[in-house]
Every structure is written in C-alpha cells, then in structure tokens.
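Researcher: Please generate the 3D structure of the following complex. Treat every line as part of one assembly.
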Amino acid sequence: MTNTKLKSILKDLIIDITMLFIFLMLLSLTLWILWMYFLRGPIDIETRGYVSKTLKEAAVQPTDIEKYTLQHFHNLDDVVLKGIQYPSNCVTCHGDYPHNETPKVRAFFNAHSWFIDCDVCHRENNKQEKIIYQWLDNETDAALYKLQDDPGMYTARIVPLLFENETESRLDKLIDNDTVSAYLLTEDKLSETEQSEAMEKMHQPLIKDPVSCDQCHTENSMFEFKDLLYTDNMATHLKSFDIGTMIDGYEAFHLPKVLEPRN
Amino acid sequence: MKSEHNSGRKIVRMTKSQRIQHVILFVSTTLLVLTGFMLQADMWLIELFGDYGEIVFDIRSWLHRASGVIVSAVCVYHLIYVITTKEGKSWVSDMLPRIRDAVDAYQNVMFMIGFRKQKPKLDRFMYLEKLEYWSVYFGMTIVIITGIMMWTEYLWPKFYLEVANALHLGEAVLATLAIIVGHIFSVHYNPHVYPMNRTFIDGMISEEMMKDEHELWYEREMKKSDEPAAGTSDNDKH
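Model: Done. Output below.
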C-alpha cells in the first residue's frame, strides 16, 4: 500500500469518524427532544414543575401533615402552619390565619398573611415616622438579601421596622408579650369592663381599618417593591396589578350563590 | 466514503447575500436551540454547573434573546430582500408552491419505493425544499411573536403567557427536529455530497448534481444559452 493511498484512507477515516460523531450528537439531541416533549413532558419554566403533572405531584414529597393539608378542602389553619419562630404577638390570640370574618375575601387576606406580618397592615401608620419594610427569615429572623424559591414561598415574611436615629427597631412586637400572657391567664377572672380595658390597651397601636389593597398595588405604593428584593419586572407587575381597579370598580365581590353560606 | 458529485463544472446556486443570510440563520438558530432547550433540562443536569449555575443561566438568557433579535433581523432583511432585489424576486418566485410539486412528490415517492423507473425531473427547488422554506416563515412568525410576549411578560395576563410558552416550545421542537432530520441529514448526509454539501459555503452546485437532482432547472438553463451551462463558473462571482 502506497503512502498516498494510506494518507487518503486515513483522511477518509477521520472524516467518517467526525461525521459519525456529529451524527450521534444530533441523534442524541433528537431523541432527547422527543423524550422530553412527548414522554417526560415539558417543564414549566416559572415553577420548574412538570407541566403535565399537577402541582401536588410536582412538589417534593410532602410530610403527613402536609398531605392532610393538601387534601383537606379548607386547608385548616391549625394544619397549615407558617412556622415562624418568633411571630408577631397577635398570633398568640388570633392564630396564623385570622381573617375569617369576611368569607368572600378571607382567602385574599389570609394568603397575604402567609408572608406579611400583621403589623404591616394593621398598625397605625404615623406619617412622621420613617417605616421601612424588610423580609425576615421565618426561622432565624435574619434579614434576607435575596428572594429564593417560588413567589410567596420564601419562608420569610415582610416585617415593618422603625428607622429612627440611624437605627432600626422592630414594629411587630408592639404589644407586650407579658401583658398578653397575663391577660390569657386571668381572662376568666376579669370583669367585662376590665376585659374591655385590657383589650383596648393591647390593641392601642393598631388601627381598625387596615391598609387596603389599592394602597399597595398601585404606582404610589406604600412599599418600594424593589427594596423588598423583587426583580424590576416583578416590582412593576406588583404595582400594575389591576387589583386597585378591581376594588374600586367592584366594591362587592360577586360569587356564585351556590358558594353562599347556608344559614 | 466520498461524494458522487464532487468534480466537473460548477454552477451558482446560492449568491453571496443568500449565503450570508443562511450562515447568520444557522449560527443564531443553533444558539437558540442550545440556549432554549437548556430550560428543559432536568435539575440534576443543571446542578452540574454548581455555583456557576446562576451565571451560566444568566448568560443563557441574554444569549437566547440576542440570538432571537438576530434571527428576527435576518427574517426582516430577507423579506425586504425578496421584495426589492432581482435575485430575491427570482428566489421567491421559484420557491412558490405549484401543482407540479404535488405531482413531483407523488412520482418521487413512487420512484423511491420502486414503482417507477424514472426519477421525476425536479426544478430549481424541489417540493421538500419549498416545504422547508415556507415552514421557516410559519415557524418564525410563531416563535418571534411568542418570544416577544415572553420577553415582555409583565404586559400580558398569565393565560396568554402560558399559551405563548406552549406555542414557543412546540414550534421549537418541531423546527429543531425538522432542521436535524429534514435539513442536516437529507442535505449534508446525502450520499451525493457527503461529508458536506458545500453550497452554503461556496454557493456552487456541481453540474452532475444539478442534472441529477434538478434536471428541469438544468435543462431550462441550458436552453437559455448556447454555453454548456448558464452562469457556469469555477469561482464565486457574486
């Protein structure tokens, strides 16, 4: 075999191997796309869950309590715990999901309770004070510097802080814990007047009419959403929610009568 | 393995402008496929990037958008090109679907499965090339519109975004499979040109291949001139 012929064979072999390699790469890509699209099913790029499966299936294997919660029609408050290590003192009496008086909209409010401290909306907002809002980790109370995981599932909540003399002080502990505990222990022994006075004292820093939807989801929101670590897009989205218009235009929520309580 | 049509006269099949458009489309589409399908990778694959995952996906995101803009620009340029230039008009005119294409398709299938002795005489662009070309218009319209919608996600209700996302992914799957199977394998892994159809680089097609795969076009060009092949050249003059 001459040298030239050998070189030619070698050249052809290199070309064939290269083309075979490209062929295999393209074949793998083709098979992967077919598998991904038709067998596994696409992934939702927002939630990273599989589009073809329900949210429940896509979630990490839930604990027994979470399973019960997911299956329960009402998602009971005593099952869906927020798991806040040092919650606002309001929770001692009112629980994690206290908005039960208005059945039609309680889901809206309770959904917000998941990640917003009571004092954000219910505390009297003295305009002369400089109040800032911050995400605090539910377990450690440490301030967050980045929002991770799915929207609303940051395992943290927004807490108001008073900014005064270059220092920040928490505003979610306005009601003295000892007062609350003492009241609960002696409640039965107090007269109606004493109970009323104690209640008034405990609720003194709070307002009866809380912050409404259109004070947050509006261009002139009381929050600067970007400071709350939201992305530019998300901040714009939260400010541009039609919820303000909805509240103005539909003062009453019209739900099907079948959902009305029967009493 | 060597190609069967790699010698003899060469005829211009793609002009310089067409080749540049094709190369830009090829590079940006490859980037779009790679950076787009990265989003569909399973978590374990993404975790391989480790601490660099975030920056890799940040770059991915902007590379995908940049490639999308380039592809859109090429599409717009191509539309202007086929409307305003002589060679563009000739290109799109030869690409228009005709009843003859259906006849060609039927006869070619019959030939391939052995029920016909003669291969049909195909024109400058055969039915599959026309299908592929017009599919690009269809596909690009979908991916560009839905891509813009997803880029401006804050302007759209969630339902529209979900529809856009489904269409974008579905069209991406269809287009990628069509490119790999219908274009790369049939054009470059074709035994006539293996290991590569060089037309997209030098713009030329061999006289033998033209005669074999586009006989009708070949005969028409022959009639136009007394020369052996109209526009025959060994060098790219465009």
